Amino acid sequence: MSSSRFDDSDFVRACRRQPHERVPVWFMRQAGRSLPEYRAVRGTGSILDAIADPDRAAEITLQPVRRYGVDAAILFSDIVVPAHAVGFGVDVVPGTGPVVERPFAARGDLDRLRPLDPGSDTPYVIETVRRAVEMLDVPLIGFAGAPFTVASYLVEGGPSRHHERTKSLMVGDEALWHELMDRLADLAIASLLAQVEAGAAAVQLFDSWAGALSPDQYRRGVAPHSARVLEAAGETGVPRIHFGVGTGEILDQMADCGAEVVGVDFRVPIDAARQRVGPGRALQGNLDPAVVLASESAACDAARAVLASNGGHPGFIFNLGHGVLPGSDPDVLARVVQVVHDEGRVRCE
Ligand code: CP3
User: Please, where are the H alpha helices in 25-162?
Assistant: First the structure.
């Protein structure tokens, strides 16, 4: 197990299901989106430019910690940064998401996914992690996109509702699919190891769109690759979180990929999720981000229901069931943090 100055934080202790008093809380996509101070420093142009500027990226990483008093920061970056950095040709369009000029379509496209050398390809990520960690008094979470979710952008060419091209490749040319997934797993591993080396105290693997798959598709096409990423990240000793949306039917398999923590979206109550993943894992989730838009009292009531569903279990990190939605009121999110801190107690086992 690695030791860092954050080993005794509520967040790291909750990831490891170790005793602590207060339920820790942070929000996926807490940096950016709803904060006016984000818009003030974000600048115009592609988000990739802001990510490549450690001054701005470290500041944006810190903003939600100052504003909300959350128990962890998440690196300001994006899941497509490694693919962009090796020259695949990805941009991120505000309000839309990642777009690819020449989508992945054939074997020859593998050549556009050479290995990542974080020191020379993404020195700005390393620098941002270092600076943020130096300034933070809570753990920094590093992250990567899981091979499937990144593949879906590269193959579809942009955000997709049905992931039809991705699934066609997965079932139509299994050999090429696995080679693509291997390359993307290598990118994720290199990126995660560099972030931990620079000071990240935990990592999250975002497989946001894994819920688009049947259990059998997930088992054959995806799980082995995500497991390889998590295994490599596990060598560092920092806790690992594995998250996707709409994953109720594959939560057991996601848990088996090896992370200490399984992220749960808002469709599955925490107590039901705990049955599905078994006793050896912590859970993270799962307030519906849309409820934050409803009203402060609705959000606080829903937060209390999430805490109740956890029932004081020590292996629990409070989060949203997916990322902060644009238009969320920062004051409501701040109140949710307060409710979790005031009322989220961990029972002694
Ligand atoms: O969590 C954080 O606040 C830290 C930074 C972070 C970003 N993207 C910055 C970002 C993280 C962890 C991500 C992960 C990410 N990126 C995921 C997985 C999480 C999830 O929401 O499921 C995915 C699927 C992406 C791909 C992506 N990037 C999309 C779909 C979008 C567009 C939609 C939108 O407006 O959020 C982006 C752009 C992006 N990445 C923004 C930010 C702050 C937004 C806008 C901008 O300023 O250009």
Answer: 36-42, 47-51, 54-68, 81-85, 118-121, 123-135, 147-156
